Amino acid sequence: MPSNHVRAVACVAAIALSSCTSILPTIGPSRHDIEHAKRQPNPGAIEIIDINDELAHTLLAQRQQRLFSETLAGTPANPRTVGPGDVLEVSIWEAAPPTLFTTNTTIGVMSTSHAVMLPEQTIDDEGDIMVPFAGRVPASGKTVEAIEREIVDRLAKKANQPEVLVQRTHNASANATVVGEVTTSTRVPLQSGSEHLLDALAAAGGVKQPVNKTTIQVTRANSVYSLPLETIIRDPRQNIALVPGDVVTALFQPYSFTALGATGRVDEVNFETQGITLAQALARANGLIDARSNAKGVFVFRLEPPNALTWPHPPKYTTPQGLVPTVFRIDMTDPQSLFLIQDFWIENRDILYVSNAP
After folding, report:
1. Taking the CB of the first residue and of the last residue of the chain, which one, N or C, has fewer CB atoms within 10 A?
2. Where is 102: in which H helix or E strand?
3. What span, in angstroms and rounded, lies between the C-alpha atoms of 300 and 328?
4. CA-closest candidate to residue 56, choices 297, 227, 309
5. What are the tens digits of pLDDT across the range 263-312?
């Protein structure tokens, strides 16, 4: 009887062991499942790339190309030009004796002319202003110095040695707008051509959230660029000059990655806008669970732009946003991996996944 009992237990154990791979609970795909995933009906849809020095350097270069100094530091438009909606004040002088503008005083035997100040006027929708005896003067798109020369040329044969001064008293066309997590949303006049990004934020009363958790977004024409505020403060090159029409948005939108699988913390984990490395991300996810994780099965899931990398084979599938589903893989049993994970940067909305041990 005892021997039969032993044989029965052994049989049950054998059956259990033989079927454990199908009945044990799991928290996601195994390393084998990821690396040998069925790719139909889109063969090669998911790119699986090993993390190495070359890859880390390539991705780091991609991060650097997104800096404001690379994308927004071109020759800015001249904010000193005027446009429709601006209010101008025109003053005109004539040498004595005045022949056209007759306001003058007499000092002894000499007659000296005073300036004739015209009423302030707004540049109309056609871009013109009206000047007596000069007619409609084109102003939009010109500097005040160019407008002065235009008026002088038109009055040269009518007035006695005219001199003209044009001043912009209200700026409605050359502004940048600051909105978002700032003390006061405002429009910042760009008159001198020297207003920079941090000047605009200061004019808005500064940001309301911590610097290391604030992202600055600049919208210029049809392009949108973002950079952590801490990076802009630390690197003067990122404090770019603004151009008319720029929209500066301060965003309190902490970056995050999602930790899944056999990690000590399955959660969405926020991180600072200046970014963190894979080493830091693993630490914030409380590392790998010793009794359950597969150290060879550490993956980062990401949607990459098509031009971000040299792909092992041409991507055959992209998302509706034109991004390539990509899985980065690293073997944590290799001692060199401890150096690689310090150079591999986590991006916003990455998924860090650690598979179960076989």
Report:
1. N
2. none
3. 5
4. 309
5. 999 999 998 877 899 999 999 999 999 889 999 999 999 999 888 888 87
- 80/220 Cα distance (integer angstroms): 18
CA angle 333, 339, 344 (to 5 degrees): 100
Q: What angle do CA 233, 275, 73 make, to 5 degrees?
A: 45
What are the CA-CA distances from residue 308 to residues 53, 173, 305, 353 (Å)? 16, 38, 5, 22
Give the H/E segment covering residue 55.
helix 53-65
Predicted local distance difference test score (pLDDT) of residue 17: 44
- Strands (E) in 84-196, as ranges, are 87-93, 104-107, 110-113, 116-117, 121-122, 128-131, 135-138, 163-170, 175-180, 186-189
pTM over 0.70: no
Looking at the DSSP bridge assignments, the partners of residue 256 are: 270
Assess contact for 209 and 181: CB atoms under 8 A.
yes
Burial class (CB in 10 A: 0-12, 13-18, 19+), 310: exposed
